[in-house]
Amino acid sequence: MAQLSPILKQATGVVAARGEGVLLFDEDDRRYLDFTAGIGVTSTGHCHPRVVEAAQKQVATLIHAQYTTVLHRPLLTLVDRMGEVLPTGLDRMFFANSGSEAVEAALRLARMSTGRPNVIVFHGGFHGRTVAAASMTTSGTKFRSGFSPIMSGVTISPFPNPTHYGWTEDEATDFALRELDHILQTVTAPHDTAAFFVEPVLGEGGYVPANTRFMAGLRERADRHGIHLVIDEVQTGWGRTGEFWGSDHFDVTGDILVTAKGLASGFPLSAIAARADIMEKAWPGSQGGTYGANAVACAAALATLDVIQDENLVANSAERGAELKAALQQVADQHKSITDVRGLGLMIGCEFRDADGNPDGVTAAAAQQEAVRRGLLLLTCGGWGQVVRFIPALVVGTDHITEAISIWEDSVAAVTA
Ligand code: PMP
Predict the structure, then answer these.
(1) Which of 13, 5, 8, 2 is nearest to 365 (CA)?
(2) pLDDT tens digits, residue range 224-247?
(3) What DSSP character marks residue 242?
């Protein structure tokens, strides 16, 4: 009998049998409130009827039509419809299956279109697990150590992370921009630097939002030096943060946008979108893949977009997110161990610190596990696993939030008493 790899870590121990909106049921039909949403993937909730219908219809019509052999209508329609939501000017698209693949496609494109070898990433960023994407990932050594040599040509610059540095947002932003200039002056010259890769909100790195001045600083330096600004919206896209794209909060448009996760409500689909003048410089043959833009995944993405628009899910993300954050702050106010509640829309983290002010991954994990025992699925993130994150599907209602907060309150009390 074969077994799963023993290091494939299980955050909850639940064997899921079926899902319905914000709810998951295990094989004994125990009900869980799912505030993990498949790590921010099931944007329209589990098995939204319109997504199910679109996928079922597509399965019965055409499952796989390899997109460099033949084209298919769900893909062509999706490309067309993406124009409704993509930032102005980013209207050339390439599709793959996972976030990591899309990040690597963006990396290849940035290098090819600039002829420059290096990239700058921001400390705490997560960009994926394939070797190049892992080499650009600095949210935890577990993602990048043990399989060296990792890819060269990556320089790490500070992210404006006020909680980590113990500074105000302004101080952290001044520092981050000053160090970026320092790096461009002393480590990787602008003429050697193809791109900045940045998340609008650090995801795996601890749910830390960037800010308008920092993003404007990146945009200005990118323009000044002919460097591409690549915005990794894999976790922050599709309404997750209460705007369609996380970068919308900061009035910034990148040169290349990377998207995946919420795009197809759970079907594997990822994409990059770039300006035409950049995409034209990709080398022939550098984009392709057996499964990219699978017809069923594209049909699910189209239904996802319809649902997000028709059910006003971006607004729901902003409104329910504000409710959730305020309620989580109230819980934090009762517990010294939770030192920060932060995030945008339905992407909220609660940070745990010990009495000495050090990141406390042990208490965070205990609270997360206790919540799971009590029927609320949650995940942790952050370099020390010190942040418990709340990322329900965008269809979440006030009643779900009230129930989740009650479980969370009891869970934190139980492990910090
Ligand atoms: N970028 C970001 C911002 C992510 O959050 C993730 C996944 N957590 C990835 C890239 C990688 O995506 P995937 O796991 O689909 O390869």
Answers:
(1) 13
(2) 999 999 999 999 999 999 999 999
(3) S
Domain for residue 4, yes or no?
no
pLDDT at 408 over 80: yes
Whether the pLDDT of residue 417 is over 90: the answer is no
For residues 273 and 180, state if they share a domain.
yes
Residues 256 and 372 in one domain: no
CATH number of the domain to which 327 belongs: 3.90.1150.10
Instruction: Mark whether 255 and 363 lie in a shared domain.
Output: no
Neighbour count for residue 69 (Cβ, 10 Å): 7
| Residue 42 resides in a domain | no
- Burial (CB count <10 Å: 0-12, 13-18, 19+), residue 168: exposed
Residues 73 and 83 in one domain: yes
Report CA-CA distances (Å) from 143 to 205, 217, 334.
Answer: 11, 28, 34
Using CA of residue 401, residue 404, residue 406, residue 412, what is the dihedral sign?
negative
Q: What CATH number does residue 70 fall under?
A: 3.40.640.10
Contact indicator for 262, 97 with CB cutoff of 8 Å: no
Which among 100, 142, 267, 344 is the best mutation to test ligand 1's pocket, defined by most ligand atoms within 8 Å of the CB? 100
Amino acid identity at 245:
W
Instruction: Looking at the structure, tell me whether residues 134 and 113 fall in a common domain.
Output: yes
Rounded distance from Cα 100 to ligand 1 centre (Å): 6
In this structure, the residues whose C-beta lies within 6 A of any atom of ligand 1 are 39, 98-100, 103, 126-128, 199, 203-204, 232, 234-235, 260
**Residue to substitute in 42, 126, 199 for testing ligand 1 pocket (most ligand atoms within 8 angstroms of CB):** 126
Q: Are both 84 and 183 inside the same structural domain?
A: yes
pLDDT in tens, 302-324: 999 999 999 999 999 999 999 99
- Amino acid identity, position 202: L
Residues 6+ positions from 245 with CB-CB distance below 8 Å: 87, 200, 231, 233, 236, 237, 257
If one residue of 137, 207, 256, 261 were mutated to test the ligand 1 pocket, choosing by the most ligand atoms within 8 A of its CB, it would be: 261
Checking DSSP bridges between strand 118-122 and strand 193-198, what pairing results, if any? parallel
